[in-house]
Amino acid sequence: MAPLKAGDKFPEGVKFDWAPITDEDASACGLIQEYDASKEWKGKKVVLVSVPGAFTPGCQAHHLPPYIEKFDELKKKGVDIVAVIASNDAWVMCAWGKVNKIHGDGILLMSDTKTFFSKEHAWQAGMGDRNGRWAMVIEKDGTISYAENEKDPRGVTVSGADAVLSKL
Fold first, then answer.
1. DSSP states of 71-116 as a string?
2. Distance between CA atoms of 90 and 156, rounded to whole angstroms?
3. DSSP 18
4. 48, 51, 59, 108: which is the annotated catalytic residue?
5. Domain parsing of the chain, residue ranges
6. One digit per residue, pLDDT tens: the chain, 168 residues?
7. CA 142 from centre of chain
8. What percent of the chain has pLDDT over 70?
9. Cβ atoms of 108 and 68 closer than 8 Å
10. Buried b (16+ CB within 10 A) or exposed e, 61-79
11. Rounded CA gap, 63 and 124, in Å?
């Protein structure tokens, strides 16, 4: 299937695995839950970001931190949720969130192992089954207004927080 592009509608049936962050202890994560993105994101503006892997050098140093640091700016532009997905399991994503001091429900770190969204509707990294490095903005009516993939999965340009902010 071709990747989604600006103007397309976010598909039905998209689900991720998610272990909610309930405390700061990175050595213990809660139970994995199914997160029905198609349902939960109705009526919300969402920035969906895909990374090749939690704790990998580019993702940890250059991709996730700016989204955390600029979350308030994103909110001022109408963003309700920043969701970061990777092919890691939900417990790894939860631990990654804890290490990066993510709290609340504005930034969600989820596992793309439920319906394989990146494989089915977006881009992969060309490194086995890893997700690609990309970002998309889903408007409140479900229309995708921005969808860009990094040509080089080691770089963070079109999928970074600054690039997304400039398109909101």
1. HHHHHHTT--EEEEEESS-HHHHHHHHHHTT--SSSEEEEES-SS-
2. 23
3. E
4. 59
5. 15-166
6. 788 999 999 999 999 999 998 888 888 888 999 999 999 999 999 999 999 999 998 889 999 999 999 999 999 999 999 999 999 999 999 999 999 999 888 999 999 988 788 888 878 766 677 888 999 999 999 999 999 999 887 889 999 999 999 999
7. 16
8. 97
9. no
10. eebbebbbebbeebeeeeb
11. 16
Structure tokens at 22: 């309930």
Q: What per-residue confidence (pLDDT) applies to 130?
A: 82
Class of domain 15-166: alpha beta
Q: Is the dihedral of CA 47, 49, 54, 56 positive or negative?
A: negative
Active site residue 59: yes
Residue 7: how many CB atoms within 10 A of its CB?
Answer: 9
